[in-house]
């Protein structure tokens, strides 16, 4: 067996460039590139190695480490986890800037390879610049912060450790159940050290996603429950899309007369006008989906973590005879909420269920109910998102204008604040890939970087980034990167002068407006930000508009532009949609001298009585 002498960094880069994946149009690199901000912890090692392999593993430079990781995560989401990216940073703050993004990827089960620089393994120059020192444990470094937010973590202290660490990393990144962030902390001296690696280690390797079939006993139980359902409901999560089972579910639902409600990650699984699509579910759910959920006697939850927004903090499913089936590739998710577990790939398992349910169809009365509720909800959406003449329109009116401007294959990207809730309810997704909202971690600052990742994943789509002024101020630097990479974004910036979503939640919980909108802070001087001027300074085209008519005209100009385009519009900070929705468990003060807070606490305690704990 032959060997090749390489540094650890060179070996890592060569190995990543040899990993392959199978896409619909044929084989492709598993890693589409590496995002990098170089510093003293990675520039001489990994930076040098990357510079010599730009043809097989492109390197992209961002402006913020968290944003680079967000872009990489969004890329993987838009590619249904079949392709991914790596992110490298220096030691210290460059590394810890990625911890938030690692948590986001962990929650959303999305693959990203994080390669932060680390201390010297030989410790000769200790303490090096930016090194964290623990007087009780000399092995601790800043990168230990990644341990709880990584699906696999390793610290590379010798070059030959890569022979075990890299295959384990790839296995985690490509496993449908274990998928999530992997952190390989790279000691900076080790990056430059050489070892005689086996030639076979660098052979091209095809990584195809595993499609596990269900256990026969679990399948039989699930089929029996569904076959006896009088009022069945399907809840579609992101796992349906990652399994590429969208068409399978659409056919399955139509064949058996099953209403399908969608989580945030699952939205777009079915086109909004599919006859079985009853809309979003849970806290930000449609009236149709939530009404059916309250009465459902069998719920088939597919590819969802069943977090509190999906289950309305466990108050949504109220039928005392409820039987819940959790179809999930991860056993931990399949066993949640006292459900019948059904562990398996969504597409493979739906095909098996379809065979078992041959001849079954939901009762005609339930199917009529589905159609009636859907029609009512579709009319509500049309009214709520209709053209508005208000000087400061609502978020809902802005969403309607952007939705009308978007083409059938275009993508909307959003993350935190009030917008994701309204988008979940009101955006009419045309199908898979058209709705990209990060709401597992609800991370402010994801929007623009995530939009860039989505655009890089599919440049043929127009990407509409919807972002509030609060998130924009947190993390906007990748507008400049989008200009540099010629990956055009259309950014619609809704300016409600602060953190409007939490401003509304604060008052709903009985509090007085405080420290959320600029007008409610204790500062003597209020700041007025010229967001359009700021966006132009980053290289984008930008304009500020007033009202929906001006917004629609600006969106037309933005579509014609070849450069990233930012449209700023002031919106009503107090308006929110009262259509649909459900309880969300946000604790209210138990003792207060304010009558408003006491009333909110009384309402809160009454709602908690409806929570199902099994």
Automatic annotation (TrEMBL):
Domain Thiamine pyrophosphate enzyme N-terminal TPP-binding: 43-132
Thiamine pyrophosphate enzyme central domain ranges (all copies): 219-353
Keywords for this protein: Thiamine pyrophosphate
Superkingdom classification of source: Bacteria
Domain spans labelled Thiamine pyrophosphate enzyme TPP-binding: 417-568
Pfam families reported for this sequence: TPP_enzyme_C, TPP_enzyme_M, TPP_enzyme_N
Family: Belongs to the TPP enzyme family.
Protein name per Swiss-Prot or TrEMBL: 3D-(3,5/4)-trihydroxycyclohexane-1,2-dione acylhydrolase (Decyclizing)
Native species: Rhodovibrio sodomensis
Gene name of the record: iolD
